[in-house]
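Following up on my earlier message about magnesium ion. Here are the inputs again, as you asked, copied directly from the submission form:
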Amino acid sequence: MNFKKAAQIAHRFADPFRVDKGKRFRLRDYDPEDTRHLTSDDKDRAGEALRLGVETLSELQERLYAQDKWAVLLIFQAMDAAGKDGVIKHVMSGVNPQGCQVCSFKAPTSEELDHDFLWRCSRHLPERGRIGIFNRSYYEETLVVRVRPELLHHQKLPPELIGKNIWDERFQDIRAYERYLSRNGILVRKFFLHVSKKEQKRRFLERLNEPEKNWKFSSADVAERQRWPEYMAAYEETIRNTATPECPWYVVPADNKWFTRIVVAAAVIDALTSLNLEFPHVDESARRRLVQARKQLEKE
Ligand code: ATP
Ligand code: MG
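Thanks, got it. Here's what our run produced:
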């Protein structure tokens, strides 16, 4: 696999959706239906591109693992039915399970509420050499918790710490935390799978109409849908405040699953190739030991 070529293609694909200076970010500049120059006639070619992307990813991940220096953290956030699970499944399908871990964050347990909000995520950070995936994350703290303030009051914080600047303080803390991770060799990439309200409705109805999809449906999701504008405002604010050149967001169009998947794969390849991963160099004395080991085995 020619990494240089793959890296160029991946970069071209992912770059339009990358947000690394939050200040000017406006969600309305991003269209959930966007498929760039591709149409649904290109779906088969997109599938082929994804297959090649997955192969490239798996080769890069082997180097990441062998080198054992960097870790990669991929964070996925989205409204319900935007396709987080499917993206994670497809994009990581070629990766050696030993080098990859997925963690899903649900509503916090009582044990988790007894700690600071980053605690539960810190426990699941990837080790060096691995790719860690967060299906939801500490970003829920400025999304669902902001949209439903009663959740903040379950967090057992001392009341004098819940002031009018609480959200700005959380943004500051998240930025500082991610800077800390970057400085420790954890490469962070964040994905907002941007689905439209219309497409979400279509997917909910599909879950209701097809018996084998019924299990995916939760009536709580319909209640959250009623707060769509509040959620979009919270996403916009969050991205504006936490998109940085070291830890960028990708706002990925999510109305067409085939397109979402190639953009995410491209962004992950772009991230990994930026690390210039190589298999560890074997020096002269180690090489001599290898030659000796071979001789010994051949003598047996
Ligand atoms: P699925 O796609 O299968 O529905 P999901 O990620 O939506 O997966 P659920 O169990 O349906 O998983 O939902 C998890 C819920 O937990 C979400 O509604 C999310 O907003 C909520 N949640 C996650 N983190 C927090 C948090 N820190 N505080 C409050 N709620 C949270
Ligand atoms: Mg859900």
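One observation from looking it over: DSSP finds 13 helices and six strands in the chain. Hope that helps, and feel free to reply on this thread.
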